[in-house]
Amino acid sequence: MNIKLNGKIFEFYRQLETSDCGPTCLRMICSFYNKEVDIRYLRKICYINKNGVSFNNLISASKELGFDTLPAKVTVDQLISNDFPPSILHWRENHYVIYLGLNKKGEIIISDPGHKIFTLTKEEFKKYWSKEDKGIVLFIEPNEHFTEEDIVGEKSFNEKILFSKYFEKMKFKLLLVFSLMIGLLMISVVNPFLNEFIIDKGINDENKLYVFYIIGIQIALFSFSNLIEYFQNKIYIELSTNFNIKFISEFLKKLVSLPLSFFDMKITSDILLRIDDHI
């Protein structure tokens, strides 16, 4: 869900991992100011760990991206009176969300990277954000060092090389599957003409021998098409099984070759979820 904010489109991004809320908030704010930044780069400059990102590291990362920042502890009334959203809020003391201002009904608009963009009344908002009538906010806006040049992170692998390596070994079987598909297509094209021949030249001319001859051809084609489908399905299963095994083995090789620092930065449930996605 995207919304219009100050005449510009605010694009929503969902956090990819449990501890990604801080970098994802920065990603959304950068996108609002026409700068696309890779989430891996944001994790790096935020010094993310399994507990997330500290408020000080979030400020440092914002400055590195070319933003002026003003951390403050303010009341709800002071927050909604400022005129330069979006701003980052410290939410429930363990999460980051973005404050987007008020809608026409006077409700507060929040972009939560863990869920979606939603609205809250003033009283509801106080329950989640403020403590002792005040909450922590990071006011943020571009300065003269900010550029709209996109920042793309380094790719961990080359997708074209990875896929071409597997498809090269399966080239013959893929061509065979394609040939079988062409064969089935030709049979489906021929059948209507055979039915037409039965009616026009067999039934109308009362030529029983011709009818039996065409029916025999249809039975042969039907049997042949079933045989083609059998081999086609067999090859499909073999290809998909081999493909999955190779991808899982590559993933596990990559996983066991990662340094211990990677596992120190990740929550166990996130790693298990990735393994489950691949397996």
Automatic annotation (TrEMBL):
Localization (cell): Cell membrane
ABC transmembrane type-1 domain: which residues? 175-279
Which is one Gene Ontology cellular component term of this protein?
A: plasma membrane
The Peptidase C39 domain extends over 15-136
Biological process, per Gene Ontology? proteolysis
Question: TM spans, by residue?
Answer: 172-190, 210-228
Q: Where does this chain mainly localize?
A: membrane
Record keywords, A-Z: Membrane, Transmembrane, Transmembrane helix
Question: Is Secreted one of the keywords?
Answer: no
How does this chain sit within the bilayer? Multi-pass membrane protein
Q: Name one GO molecular function term.
A: ATP binding
Q: What is this protein called?
A: Peptidase domain-containing ABC transporter
